Amino acid sequence: IRSVTLSVDPAADVERGTNLTLTCAVDAAHSGGVMPAYQYSFFKDYKKRELARPQPTDNVGRVVYSIPSARAIHSGKYQCKVGIDGQNWASNFRDIVVRGLQAPVLTVDKTAVREGETVSITCRADGEMGKLTFSIKDGSDEVHRKETDSGHMQEIIPLRSARTASLTCSYFLVMGPKTLQSNVSNVLSVAVHELDITPSVTVHPQTGVIEGDTVNITCSVNPQYQDLSSLSLNLMKGPKILDMKNATYSKCVLASDSGEYECSAELDGVRKSGSVNLTVRGGRVSNVSKMSLAFSFTYLELFSQPTVTVTPTDVFEGQDFTVHCRSLDFASERIRRDDVKYSILRNEDNVTLGRFDGTYRAMAGTKTNGNYTCSAQVRTIVKRSTSVSFEAKVLVSRPVITVDERVVLGRPFNIYCYSENGSLPINYTLIWKRTVLNHSILTHTRQQAQFTATVHSEADVHSLACGAQNYDRKQPLMSSTLKASVTVPAQKAFLTVVPTPEDIVEGHDIYLICSIMRGTPPFTIKWYRQDDRGLLYTNTVSTNSSSHTLVGVHNENSGTYYCDVQNYGSDRALSNKVSFTVNMARWKKALIIGACLLALAVVVVVVLIRYRAKRGRETYSLPSKRETAVKLSVMSSTLGFVLLGLGSLVAGEVVESFEKLCPEFFMRSPQ
């Protein structure tokens, strides 16, 4: 198969009613012998479909399909495919557009009807194909819509209002993502005549009605329709439908029966109404409109709705209170005041059985709490008051004073005061040694009074209390004094060095003892050396002192030391600073002293020898044994005296003396 082409004649874009021809041609080569079979398939909008019978041609490589009198439904995207001996080849796509929709034709079976009657409407577009959606309109309002694939639709439509109906129809065709809308059909007018079923409402009697009298309200329509079984009459007051007998509603009226009464008549789906207005202010009958009648008549109360009151307004448990029930107005020409009987109810239970004077007295308590209503009755007429809620106030209970955090001397802290019971509002007072410090009035349940205080001694904390009051005629109830642990800030830290700075010798241990003169443990103690080394050690203790040990000190441990102390919520308390120097060990000093003595002895011997040599050259005569012995004795005595003197200094002053005699031997070094 070399190629497959699809062509459209006379054109791909045509008007409605044009005869279309689709030609699918294939250019193929074969090896002679038996001619292979050609399989043709046509597609519209990607779906395979049979468009028409193929027309025979002399060329097996060409097939023609016809679409006679094309319609809008034939618009779409076309393609053909050819299969030969297992090979399949598709043509290019061709878009066919058929323009124009047939204008629909509207017909009706009646041109004049009565309100509520129906008319049969037919809308035709028989020349169109496909699924059509018809729409029928009365003026600009759509009254019906229907989908059909028969090219026409018929529907029975009721006409319910008196007028001249203007009926039209149209249709639309959905083509994939596009919607094609037809023109509007011809316009047909149908006369709709009024159905005279507007009800009239009459009231008897019309004037001078007093509570307890019987009022009759009658609904009636045109006698032509009054007895029709399909006629529906209803009398309504607000949302409630009233029960009528023989089109009349009878009622022994109360003041609460005042208002508008509406009579509704319905026949064949047509509804019309009239109304009457009952008012206590009086008036006269008046025709309100053609469609509805409204009446107004004098309506006097036999007695007014009772009211219930509770005195006094604020009642605490244990106090007396009174509930009163009264009707303020009554028709004196009909009844006496004593004819009105009162009953008082608490939570719908009568609490004045056998008494009708409208008074109830009791002592306030939990049992007397509730919703109070009262009823007033004259003969068969009963009126009820609105409900009044009564709840006896509860005297405040003894308050409790607490804190929610540590109390630190010299720092502000929060105090809370709360009473478990008591009616709001409650006035809380913070008191210190009979002195009022602050007030707080609470108006919400489960709320605590909060105060802020600062104390400077533990005794001040335990002198705080709070009072609560919610009734002016009673003294405030006092809490116990505040029981709270008090934290005294750490103060006056003192650093002691053991041994004393003068007795510190290298190789020994040094104890840095940090003591706190005042404060509440636990304490956090930190030891510092005043140089670049900073913090040495940190310890937390529950006592007023702690120590840090410098083990086997050396000369580099010399310096200035101090400590600081801190407990909960306090600032740092710095100690005094102590400086010390690590002295050389005694054995090192003795070794140096011995070296000095040896060096001195050598110097003395050398001096004596040089001295004798000089004397010998001067006299050249040998001294006698006695002279020699005397000189040696003097030298020995002199050296012995020196050694004896030095020995006597070792016991306490040798170090200091030799530091003066041989300072160069006492220069300190790491060695």
- Count of separate DSSP helical elements: 5
Global Rg: 62 Å
> Could you tell me how far the N terminus lies from the C terminus, measured between alpha carbons in angstroms?
110 Å
Q: What proportion of the residues is helical, as a percent range? A: 10-25%
Shape: flat
Major β-sheet, in short? 6 strands, mixed
Keywords: Disulfide bond, Membrane, Signal, Transmembrane, Transmembrane helix
GO molecular function, one term: transmembrane signaling receptor activity
Domain Ig-like: 2-82, 199-279, 306-389, 399-487, 489-581
Protein name: Ig-like domain-containing protein
Structure description:
The strands form 14 sheets. Strands 2, 4, 5, 7, 8 and 9 form a six-stranded mixed sheet that branches. Strands 11, 13, 14, 16, 17 and 18 form a six-stranded mixed sheet that branches. Strands 30, 31, 33, 34 and 35 form a five-stranded antiparallel sheet that branches. With 671 residues, the protein is mostly beta strands. The chain is built from five helices and 52 strands. Mean pLDDT is 83; it is low at 280-299, 636-655 and 657-671. α3 runs antiparallel to α4 (625-649). The longest helix is centred in the last third of the chain and has 34 residues, at 586-619. A hairpin with a 2-residue loop joins β25 and β26. 11% of the residues lie in helices and 44% in strands. It is flat, with a radius of gyration of 62 Å.
